[in-house]
User: Fold these one by one.
Assistant:
Number 1:
Amino acid sequence: MPACTLPAAVKEQKSFLESLLQRHGAVLLRGFHTTATAEDFNDVIEAFGYEDLPYVGGPSTRTEVVGRVYTANNAPPHRKLHFHHEMSHLPSYPRKLFFFCEEVAAFGGETPILLSHIVYGKMEEKYLEFVEKLEELGLIYTIFAEEEDDDSSALGRGWKSMFHTEDKIVAQQRAAKLNTKLEWMENGVKMIMGPTPGIKRDETRPCKTWFNSIAAAYTAEGGDRKDSEKMGVSFGDGSPLPENVIHDCLKIMEEESIDIPWQKGDLLMIDNLAVLHSRKPFTPPRRILAAFCK
């Protein structure tokens, strides 16, 4: 009997997989040895039949691989990527994320995941005033982008690839649709994104989720120089976030998360509204691919 391919299994069991994703927020598919390449991964995404969401407006450097498949993040392997919801700073964000392990790291490189409503609940319990202010004002993200991509930074995407154009006028038009103001500078552009919600309500469960990239943006300010120059975050009125609260939030995230140690051929489905994700440092080689769906 021929081995069952993952695209065939997806088409047959799509409703069951969706019910698992709705119940748990993330689903790991492992052991489908017919899925080994980027092309195989793209076939799986096509089998689900979800609408594609182009990666426009995101600050992470990625490489288009094939079809709807990108590299997960081109940041240097020594960098830890902190918890975030994908494209949470934008009005249009993917509801479903797919990650695929094409090559396992020699050491490290796990993908920690975390239920967002747990973070919200613990932060509300401990810092009610902060959470109420976050809900009322939202967040403003400030991102600096050079013309070309800079793979030495976790936030190094250039504005040309970010907006899929080399024309500044077209970039401004596309930025406006993303609730983003561009301020052109001699060596690049400063993007002011927002105000955008820092908390969302997941009507399908229902609960409130910690839907933001505060951890990724704030830790960039104190991380490698490359990243500290590229991204900042504040309340929607421009006032600073309290440092002690953010550091405690980072601690809560670490305590409540679980690590996904990759095996070759693994495919991880994530409900982007329900689950935050990050990346641990690693020793190459490691190749994780990604796809984003509405």
Number 2:
Amino acid sequence: MADATDDIDKLYEFGERLNDAKDKSEHRQDYEGIIAAANGSVKAKQLAAQLIPKFVKFFPELAEQALDQHLNLIEDHELGVRVQAIRGLPLFCKDTPEQLTKIVDILGQLLIAGENVERDAVHKALMTVLRQDVKTSLTALFKHIGSIEDQSAEDFSTWDSIRKKVLLFLRDKVFPLKTELLVPQELMERHITTLVKQNLQDVTAAEFKMFMDFLKSLSLFGHKAPAERIQELVEIIEGQADLDAQFNVSDADHIERFISCLSMTFPFFKRGASGSKFLNYLNKQIMPVFDKVILVTPIFISFLMQQVHLMHLTVGLSTVEDLARAMIKKLTQGMADQNKALAAAKTEEEKDAIKTQKQNATFALRACNNILAMTQPLNTKTPKFIGDQKTNLSWKEAAKPSGPSTATVAGQKRPAATTNGSNNNPLKKGRGASGMQHQLVNKAFSGIYDSGRSSGRGGRSWRGRGRGRSYH
């Protein structure tokens, strides 16, 4: 007990002298005494864990020795010693940035710590170093997400555990603070985009969706982004779709991947991006064996054809929609001007001419509204067939309802064609028909990315297929 007390007293002496010294570099022996005390009692280790990083910047020649001793404290069997040592790690790179990459690498490995208080200390330490140098820190952190092929069999389990924790840290701690951390904005958003693109070799479907959702949230790819940046996102998705692989009708995993990636690209087509690679793959790889594909995976194909048709329609009609909206705005303003002109007209001839202009504008306005009404169902997640209930012929006045509807007249049956579940509905032809297939597919694909990580690599994984075939 006396020896432990002596160790603590000596440590306090070393620390006080270093605190008071104007030229701390002259007190090398005191700092060496602090480093040596890290081999003492539990309390001495805890105090040393505070003092070693505090004064390391004044003794660069002892920096490596000090860090090695500090890392021993991080591996100590006492939780209190480990936590104190973790808290001190950011100080090693505060004034010696050349150590930052190594410190981030160490903290990344420590994310698998078992105790909550220990993990909290790691999270806070990582956030501290991220704020010191976000670019270097992110680069070092993303190295833990690298390719599975770089790991030996005996190291895989540990590497995989660290990788999962790093991904969770990025998702929960880093991505939500992108506005604060990614400064200057454009430079850092471009840097993290590059990091994401470089580390998609081995990702699950859920992980890929997480990264894509993050990239879409960046200002770099925001609503005002030019078409070439949106095309960059499409090309990332194309890389995951494995479009260089030979199509195999028995490879359900590849078909699922292709359809999932194709679906992810739809929001970008309306923003000027091109899906030419997907279309080329369809034409050259899938269509030549279409009959075989139908026999093997009918539900996939039902969904696939729906999405392909939707792609063509969405891309083509988006331009028409934009023109229709612009025309509606112009016609509305023009009709307001015509009303003013009509009020100011002095002769019947002038009034007739203005009335004719208003009538033509009304017809055009109805036509534009019909265009938007007809294309609206195509923009939904589950496209619907276009009925005539939302459209009115542009040269006719809209019919006004008169009296109760057919369905509400007492004693009168609802027409068979409108009865829910009726066999007269061409979209519902019984079990196994296209209507049922669409329902099954929509249900299956609505949760394709939500499988989580509960079972191995998260259900049917996108990982483990090797570099080249699956990930680029």
Number 3:
Amino acid sequence: MAGTQVAGNIKLKGSTEIVAEYFNYGVHNILYQRGIYPAETFAREKKYGLSLFVSTEEELQKYMKNIMTNIKEWLGSMVLQKLVVVITCADTNEVLERWQFDVEDDTSETKENSKPKIKTEKEIHDEIAAVMRQITATITFLPLLETLCNFDLLVYTHKDVESPDTWGETGPQFIANSDEVRLRSFTTTIHKVDTSVSYKKMS
């Protein structure tokens, strides 16, 4: 007799895949919306019921794949704290925008209530779609990036986690005089992800 899977019973592995996929699409969406790479180097993909853009640049794809391999491992071990996309001016290295994805353990409330929270994958994807729409809509209020820009990814984990040898240590790269907008959050019932963007105030 075949086993029955309880609808909405998201396991740690499934949650890890969902959050990592959100990060991947989220970063690509930011790079497209903010014009960090030319629009013609992106391909349209259907995800979460939306049309999203993913870079076709080979070097960027390789870079993202390498990052996501480690992120999946750390999400699965519940040691990832945040992922940050830093956008800087190519000429001066001044930080212009800082997109932050905060990750929290969302199982504590379940343990206290001793009753598992049930959520379907569709419900989670609907929440993610709402965040993606907000990321896309940020172009209506974020200052125009009038200079050539670079981006970097910062990954925060628990202190005892060893990072790959090829990764370097860096500071938080905060923006001294900034405004912040908090976007929607979503939860898989295992991982909760909050998204926000800080940007340099226009003088």
